[in-house]
Amino acid sequence: MTADHPETIGENAYRRIRADIIFGRIAPGQKLKLDWLKDTYGASISTLREILSRLTSEGLVTAEGQRGFEASPVSVENLRDIAALRLLLEGFALEQSFAAGDMEWEARIVAAHHKLAALETRMRDGDLSQTEMWKRYDWEFHQALISACGSKVLMETHAAVFDKYLRYQMIALSFRGDIAANEHQILLDAALKRDAATAKTVLEQHVQGGVEHALATGTIGE
To answer: pTM of the predicted model, to two decimals?
Structure first.
């Protein structure tokens, strides 16, 4: 938001609640009581109902009829479905972006990868204090890769699906160390060479590897 268009209380509450669900500060299945939300996020009950309805439409909140709302539960099946959808969208967008990307696109990718790689190095050295920032940089890098695809709708849809995938990664605190970092490097190199075939192959390994690693932690459930 700019000074000319400051963020409203409702927009601020929506953004914060959504982030808290995605980053696991609101646990899967946690009841979202309106009084607690009002005290925590500072929005009115009517505004909160609108926010919860919006998050329900995004699949991050589940309506329980007369019993109110809860953060959507997680499951192995749901994670696999989200991963498959992410691969479908991102793989298609990669091809479009690689074909249309210019020097400005390359600069965005290199800059995003630089931040991600620096944080991954710290995490491989044992510093896990910035896991949320790591996933933000991960999101930025993958969004940069497809940012020349030419479709705002595709970008927005991919971002929404990526957020759901990211939620599982945060719940499982799933970091694959050198493997993930090397895959990111290969994706960068493939982008700069416009090698979409290699990028799509590595992307599938990257996403499916993330799924299996998350499931191996035993935190997702059935």
So the answer is: 0.86
For residue 113 the two structure tokens come to 């990868």
The residues spanned by each domain of the chain are 9-71, 76-216
What is the distance between the alpha carbons of residues 22 and 169, in angstroms, rounded to a whole number? Answer: 9
pLDDT of residue 170: 86
Beta bridge partners of 61: 71
Residue the block writes with tokens 């932690």: 217
CATH 3.90.1150.10 for domain 76-216: no
Which tokens sit at 207? 């996403």
Q: What pLDDT does 130 receive?
A: 83
**Residue 190, pLDDT above cutoff 80:** yes
DSSP letter (8 states) at residue 25: S
Sign of CA dihedral 217, 218, 221, 222: positive
Rounded Cα–Cα distance for residues 90 and 54 (Å): 24
Residue with tokens 């595709």, as numbered in its chain: 154
Q: Which has more confidence, 3 or 152? A: 152
DSSP 6: P
